[in-house]
Design goal:
The protein is α/β, with parallel strands linked by helices. It is built from eleven helices and 14 strands. It folds into two domains: 255 residues, TIM Barrel; 56 residues, 2-Layer Sandwich (Alpha-Beta Plaits).
Length: 317
């Protein structure tokens, strides 16, 4: 599979990366062995970038795959929403301990919302700079659904990698049009910042047109890589074939697309505290009579609402 340099970090990544959110306890909840098998198959097919995060709870699957992998070391990127220096240090140490890695290739500020959020994470960012000097991480990055925030992060000292919401239809991009996000990312690339996209299939909304959607993002020449959440070897095979510009049989594509997934709130457990409403940057949740109401057209299946639920009432099914 074709590889690219991730900006000026000196890190080389495959065009396609594997995201581990969908296999995590936040979504499909694959077993450690099943998740590791999918990651291993991805590595065998030439994928070299694994995306994970403290929030996902997918470190065990990643660790199991890395223990079994006999080839060149893949690039591992992780993220944390920690704000304080102490919390970010604990997050980096947790990742190293649970994955068994000696260092993390890219560690990112996770799901940054706006300018105030960047400021609130100054101490966390400062720790990442220290961790980079110590060799615990190789590059510092940040992720966001917001185009304006991505632009601010691109101009924030120390940020070397961006992980933006980016897909053909602009699904999930906040505060700007797709064209505006594209311009922001082009400017960031011109400054040497590495870019690997999230949600190239729009959180599943583009799953029935996956070939065209993936080809669009790579032909755009805006990103160095894009990560797709995969929970089966069939998904890996189809996405790899697309990136290699190989023909994918219609029947196989329909099989991989499978049934539609959606956000589910267990009303028997929900206490209607609306913590999830506050957490949802996409405005896909709004207060309801007995539980929050879900706008499935706006929901991108990021699952970020689930960890804030005190009753564990939210799942993607």
């Amino acid at each position: 599979m074709k590889k690219k340099q991730l900006g000026k970090t000196g890190i080389e990544v495959s065009l396609l990366g594997i995201g581990t959110l969908t296999m995590s306890p936040m979504q499909r909840a694959l077993t450690i062995d099943d998740g590791a098998a999918v990651i291993l198959h991805a590595l065998e097919q030439g994928i070299t970038l694994i995306d994970t995060a403290q929030m996902y709870g997918s470190y065990p699957q990643v660790a199991a795959a890395l223990r079994q992998w006999k080839g060149p070391a893949p690039v591992v990127a992780s993220k944390s929403a920690a704000r304080s220096r102490e919390a970010m240090q604990a997050a980096v140490e947790e990742c190293l301990q649970q994955t068994g890695l000696a260092h993390i290739n890219v560690f990112l500020l996770h799901a940054v919302r706006d300018a105030a959020d960047i400021e609130a994470r100054r101490e966390a960012l400062q720790y990442l700079r220290e961790a980079r000097k110590l060799g615990l991480i190789k590059a510092i990055g940040a992720s966001s659904h917001s185009a304006l925030t991505i632009d601010l992060l691109a101009n924030t000292a120390g940020i070397e990698v961006l992980h933006p919401m980016y897909n053909r239809d602009g699904i999930g991009i906040l505060d700007a049009t797709l064209a505006e996000m594209t311009d922001i990312l082009k400017r960031a690339r011109d400054r040497g910042i590495g870019i690997y996209a999230m949600k190239p299939l729009g959180g599943g909304h583009l799953r029935n047109d996956a070939a065209a959607a993936l080809r669009w993002i790579f032909e755009s020449q805006v990103v160095d890589s894009a990560v797709v959440g995969m929970t089966s070897c069939d998904e890996v095979d189809m996405n790899v074939a697309i990136v290699r510009d190989e023909t994918v049989a219609d029947g196989f594509a329909r099989k991989v697309a499978g049934r539609e997934r959606h956000l589910f709130i267990n009303t028997g457990l929900c206490q209607n505290c609306n913590a999830c409403v506050e957490a949802c940057q996409q405005k896909a949740l709004r207060p309801g009579e007995k539980s929050p109401a879900i706008d499935h057209e706006l929901c991108i299946l990021c699952g970020y609402c689930a960890p804030v639920c005190p009753k564990f009432a939210i799942r993607i099914i």
